[in-house]
Each structure stands twice: as C-alpha cells, then as structure tokens.
Write a structure and sequence with these properties.
This protein is α+β, with helices and mostly antiparallel strands and 238 residues long. The strands form three sheets. Strands 4-5-6-7-11-10 form a six-stranded antiparallel beta sheet. It has a five-stranded mixed beta sheet with strand order 3-2-1-8-9. A four-stranded mixed beta sheet has the order 14-13-12-15, with helices on one face. The longest helix has 13 residues. The two termini are 36 Å apart.
C-alpha cells in the first residue's frame, strides 16, 4: 500500500520507507531502490525523473516539471510524485458502446491491485467521481486525479508538495471556489458539454461558435468536471 502524506511525501509499500518531498535525486533513488529496479526518465524541463514499478502501478518522482502542469520551478529537489496504472485493458462498459478500432488510451473499469491511500480513501479503489466526492471540496490542493470517462477509475494520480487553506476560506484572496461554478452542473448544465481529449476533458460552452473554458487551477477544474459528469452533462468526442 502507498500512503500519501500531505506536505511530507509518500510511505512506500513493503516497508521500503518514506519518499519525502525535498529529497535530492540521490536520496530519492536510494529510497525507491528498496521497492524495485529504478530507471531514469528523460522528461522535458526536468533535471531528473525516476520511475519504479510496483504491481500494476508505476511511480515517477522528480521536480515540478514531471507533472507537466501547474507552476514550473527550477528547484531540483523532489516536489512531485505521479502514480499511473499499467497493464490495464479496455473492457466493455454497460453504458458505453465499444468502437471496432478504438485507439484511445485504455480505461480502467476496476480497482488497482496496489492501494494508494489518502485520508483512508483508496484513490484507485473506486470510480474517480466517487473518490472525489469522498475527499470533499477541501481536499489537499497538491492532489490531482486524471479525468476519466463516466464510471471509470482514475488511471493517474499526481501528488505535489502544496497545500491551500481548508474550508474554502477566501479571506484576503480572489481565489475562486467551487460554488462559483455550480450552475454548470445544475440549472445551466444544458448550456455546456464536455469534449473528450486524449488526456481528459475540455469544458465547452455550446452555441453557434462554441467556446472552450480554461480553468488554470487544476484541482478546481477536476472538481467541476467530476460534478458535470455525475450530473449527466453531454460528453462529445474530441
């Protein structure tokens, strides 16, 4: 079992120790080597990136650039960990037809063999929308689940050394909160659609000239998309 510790790092399975934010490359490699064979990955913009396999998961650790999103920094120390499902195959879903030659990435319709736990919630153990609902609106802002098709399980989790105030407190800030977008999956949901892309979903305002809505805050975007999917907002192919 992997256990995610906000602002600290990740406890590794099999008594391999804790991968701590702030480690340098050598320390991270020594820690990951207790779990299995470590390979170095070439990630654009990242001074280093290390990957190790564990069951049906791969863990990649490194500085900010390995997540390919959010603010990019020059700090060479460990700030990001990405966990990805591997070896899963696309299986028929009761509500979605299967194309004869589907070239999209595989979609997970079942839990991972190795649990990844945050606040006693297995992030790969339940459909992604259920996981987001269980974590709540004030979940750690350094956590991101890759958007998936309706009913699907997450296939990638990013965990970053970051934490914002809990409870949606906006005192002294202009930080947007989920309630600002509630109309998109309630009273105004028919005006919106989700366009499926190779990595998730794009929020689109319908009309004669459809407009893409870009939300720079990854955590907020995930929350909005999860609620739009749960509310039955139209999903179209990209």
């Amino acid at each position: 079992m992997f256990e995610l510790l906000p602002r600290i790092g990740i406890v590794l399975p099999d008594s391999a120790g804790t991968l701590r934010f702030g480690m340098d490359e050598d320390a991270a490699q020594a820690t990951l080597a207790r779990l299995g064979q470590v390979r170095g990955d070439d990630v654009p913009g990242a001074p280093w990136a290390l990957t190790v396999a564990c069951g049906d998961l791969e863990l990649t650790a490194g500085p900010d650039a390995i997540a390919r999103s959010g603010p990019q920094q020059t700090d060479p120390l460990l700030t990001n960990v990405v966990l990805r499902r591997t070896g899963h195959t696309r299986r028929p879903h009761p509500r979605l037809p299967m194309a004869g030659h589907d070239t999209r990435p595989p979609v997970c319709w079942g839990p991972a063999a190795v649990p990844v736990v945050l606040d006693d919630i297995d992030l790969f153990g339940y459909p992604a929308t259920e996981v987001l609902e269980a974590l709540g609106d004030d979940r750690d802002s350094g956590l991101r689940l890759r958007p998936v098709v309706p009913g699907g399980y997450a296939h990638e989790v990013t965990f970053r050394r970051e934490r914002l105030p809990r409870g949606g407190d906006r005192t002294g800030t202009d930080e947007p909160v989920l309630a600002d977008y509630e109309h998109m999956w309630t009273t105004g949901r028919n005006a919106w659609q989700l366009e499926r892309t190779g990595t998730g979903y794009l929020i689109v305002l319908k009309g004669d000239q459809p407009m893409d809505m870009l939300i720079c805050h990854d955590t907020l975007a995930d929350q909005i998309i999860a609620r739009m999917i749960a509310a039955g907002v139209e999903i179209v192919a990209g």
